[in-house]
């Protein structure tokens, strides 16, 4: 794929690494590719970062035709930059596109767009452990008409944001509450797709939980309101009696790359990992009889996020003594070690630029 590059004439400098936060600072450039039915992908270009202009009838503004990905570029100690399992993000983006009637893109082309863009923005990959350049590929339907159908025009973009360490103040276990009213998605819906609409629909519950002093909600399935699905925008894992349990991918759960990587690491370490339906009743039983040893969320942003408190209805339980558990800590060390290049990568997950 030919990529036309127009460099900015006003390059910016990165704020101090300890002031970055998440998703607030953007790099000098952005990448765009257009798609039209019958013509395919065309006009791949990197331009100075800035506003984009849309027709007021653009499909994305009315019918939510939007998908995205999230991955990071990591700085190694030797100064080099690397990605973590980027092909997994690329494949998932295409699965999301298929679900939302958006166009798919050749995997190699998408990888080339990603690596060309990151190489151009290399100076924006921060250096301290825990910091990264967060990459946000996304795509939206962009027909300039109000009729409802699979789009005939779309735009693929990549923007990037240097981000601070998720755990600047150390890994503190979070409090979560079971959401009994809203559901994130349903089987047959869009749960397995990384689409903006899923987020729009789940924000209300998150805000209500925050008002009650909890940082995330634990989502239940939308059909029986019985089985645990995810925590906030992360996948979730439990350790009960030595066994690791994580909800199976029923279609309403986002197939996280961190989830997949945790499962592979845990199996290598000799743990039994069960991907299955896991009900709230089973969780309550394990909390009541003291067999719930650890619980954690997992996703690219936090890597792992230990759960220290769990509210179910009017009851609040402490999980794992409110501290980070042994397995949670191990997963954090191993995954971050591989991602920042401090450890060997026996799985071949790292993609060096
Ligand atoms: C992105 C996402 C995750 C985590 O996926 P990773 O690939 O591990 O970052 C989990 N749940 C939801 C709803 C997500 O959008």
Q: Helix proportion of residues, in percent?
A: 10-25%
Stated plainly, the CATH topology of the largest domain is called D-amino Acid Aminotransferase, Chain A, domain 2
The CATH homologous superfamily of the largest domain is termed D-amino Acid Aminotransferase, subunit A, domain 2
Q: What structural class is derived from the secondary structure elements?
A: alpha+beta
Number of strands: 18
- Give the CATH class of the largest domain: Alpha Beta
**N-to-C span:** 18 Å
Query: What is the mean pLDDT?
Result: 96
Biggest sheet statistics: 9 strands, mixed
Number of H- or I-type helical stretches: 7
Global shape = globular
Strand content: 25-35%
* Total count of domains: 2
* N-to-C order of helices and strands: EEEHEEEHHEEEHEEEEHEHEEEHE
Bound compounds: pyridoxal-5'-phosphate
Low-confidence stretches: none
Estimated radius of gyration: 21 Å
Plain-language structure description:
The structure is a single chain. The protein has 353 residues and is an alpha+beta fold. The protein folds into two domains: 4-163, 2-Layer Sandwich (D-amino Acid Aminotransferase, Chain A, domain 1), CATH 3.30.470; 174-339, Alpha-Beta Barrel (D-amino Acid Aminotransferase, Chain A, domain 2), CATH 3.20.10. The protein contains seven helices and 18 strands. Strands 1, 2, 3, 4, 5, 6, 7, 8 and 18 form a nine-stranded mixed sheet that branches. Strands 9, 10, 11, 12, 13, 14, 15, 16 and 17 form a nine-stranded mixed sheet that branches. Helix 5 (257-268) links the parallel strand 13 (243-247) and strand 14. The longest helix is centred in the middle third of the chain and has 16 residues, at 196-211. The two termini are 18 Å apart. Bound molecules: pyridoxal-5'-phosphate.
């Amino acid at each position: 794929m030919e990529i036309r590059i127009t460099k900015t004439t006003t390059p910016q400098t990165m704020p101090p690494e300890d002031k970055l936060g998440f998703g607030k600072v953007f790099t000098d450039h952005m990448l765009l590719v257009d798609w039209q039915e019958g013509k395919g992908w065309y006009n791949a270009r990197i331009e100075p970062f800035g506003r984009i202009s849309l027709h007021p009838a653009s499909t994305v503004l009315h019918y939510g035709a939007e998908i995205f990905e999230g991955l990071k570029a990591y700085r190694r100690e030797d100064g080099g930059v690397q990605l973590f399992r980027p092909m997994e993000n690329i494949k998932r983006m295409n699965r999301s596109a298929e679900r939302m009637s958006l166009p798919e893109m050749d995997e190699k082309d998408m990888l080339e767009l990603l690596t060309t863009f990151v190489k151009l923005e290399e100076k924006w990959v921060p250096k301290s452990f825990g910091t990264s350049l967060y990459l946000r590929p996304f795509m939206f339907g962009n027909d300039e008409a109000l009729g409802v159908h699979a789009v005939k025009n779309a735009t693929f973009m990549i923007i990037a944001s240097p981000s601070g360490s998720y755990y600047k103040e150390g890994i503190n276990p979070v409090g979560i509450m079971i959401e009994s009213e809203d559901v994130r998605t349903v089987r047959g819906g869009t749960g397995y797709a990384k689409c903006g609409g899923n987020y729009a629909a789940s924000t209300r519950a998150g805000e209500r939980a925050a008002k009650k002093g909890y940082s995330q909600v634990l989502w239940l399935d939308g059909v029986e309101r019985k089985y645990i699905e995810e925590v906030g925008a992360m996948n979730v894992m439990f350790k009960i009696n030595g066994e690791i349990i994580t909800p199976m991918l029923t279609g309403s759960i986002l197939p996280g790359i961190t989830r997949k990587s945790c499962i592979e690491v845990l199996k290598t370490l000799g743990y039994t990992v069960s991907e299955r339906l896991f009900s709230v009743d089973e969780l309550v039983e394990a909390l009541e009889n003291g067999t719930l040893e650890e619980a954690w969320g997992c996703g690219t942003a936090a890597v792992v996020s230990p759960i220290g408190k769990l509210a179910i209805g009017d009851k609040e339980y402490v999980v794992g003594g409110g501290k980070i558990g042994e397995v949670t800590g191990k997963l954090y060390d191993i995954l971050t070690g591989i991602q920042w290049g401090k450890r060997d990568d026996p799985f071949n997950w790292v993609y060096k630029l």
